[in-house]
C-alpha cells in the first residue's frame, strides 16, 4: 500500500527514489551499498543484523548466523524470529 503509493509519487514527480524506511537515497554502486549497510549494522539496525546473519547461514557459519539473528530477533525483527525457528527445527 503506502510504499507503492510513495514510489509512484516519486516516479511521477521525477524525484529521486528513497528508501521507504530511512528516507535516504538508494545506493548507486555496490560500494556505496556496502557502506550504508555497515552503518546500519553498527547502529544495531535489526534488518542489517538479519541480513548479516542470513549471509553467515548461507556461508555455513551457523553459529555466527544464530548470534546475529538472535540479536535482531531481540530487537523485535519478526523475520529473524522466523529464521531462528527454522534453525531450531534443523
What do you see in this structure?
With 90 residues, this protein is mainly alpha-helical. Helices cover 69% and strands 0% of the residues. The chain has helices at residues 2-12, 30-42, 46-58, 62-74, 78-89. Helix 2 (30-42) crosses helix 3, helix 3 (46-58) runs antiparallel to helix 4 (62-74) and helix 4 (62-74) packs antiparallel against helix 5. The longest helix has 13 residues, at 30-42. The radius of gyration is 16 Å and the shape is elongated. The mean pLDDT is 87.
User: Describe the biggest sheet?
Assistant: none
Strand-and-helix sequence, N→C? HHHHH
Would you identify the regions where 5 or more consecutive residues have pLDDT less than 50? none
Query: Roughly what percent helix?
Result: 55-70%
- Roughly how many Å is the radius of gyration? 16 Å
Work out the helix count: 5
Between the first and last Cα atoms, what is the distance in angstroms? 35 Å
Strand content: under 5%
Overall form: elongated
- Arithmetic mean of pLDDT: 87
Structural class by sheet pairing and helices: mainly alpha
Let me know the number of strands.
0
Descriptive labels:
69% helix; 5 helices; single chain; 90 residues; mainly alpha
Question: What topology does this entry show?
Answer:
Layout: H1 2-12, H2 30-42, H3 46-58, H4 62-74, H5 78-89
Helix pairs in contact: 2-3, 3-4, 4-5
Summarize this structure briefly:
By secondary structure, this protein is mostly helical. It has 5 helices and no strands.
Amino acid at each position: 500500500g503506502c510504499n507503492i503509493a510513495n514510489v509512484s509519487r516519486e516516479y511521477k514527480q521525477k524525484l529521486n527514489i528513497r528508501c521507504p524506511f530511512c528516507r535516504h537515497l538508494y545506493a548507486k554502486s555496490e560500494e556505496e551499498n556496502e557502506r550504508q549497510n555497515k552503518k546500519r549494522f553498527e547502529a544495531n539496525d535489526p534488518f542489517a543484523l538479519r541480513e548479516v546473519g542470513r549471509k553467515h547461514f548461507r556461508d555455513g557459519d551457523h553459529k555466527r548466523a544464530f548470534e546475529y539473528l538472535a540479536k535482531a530477533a531481540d530487537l523485535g525483527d519478526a523475520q529473524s524470529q522466523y529464521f531462528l525457528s527454522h534453525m531450531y527445527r534443523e
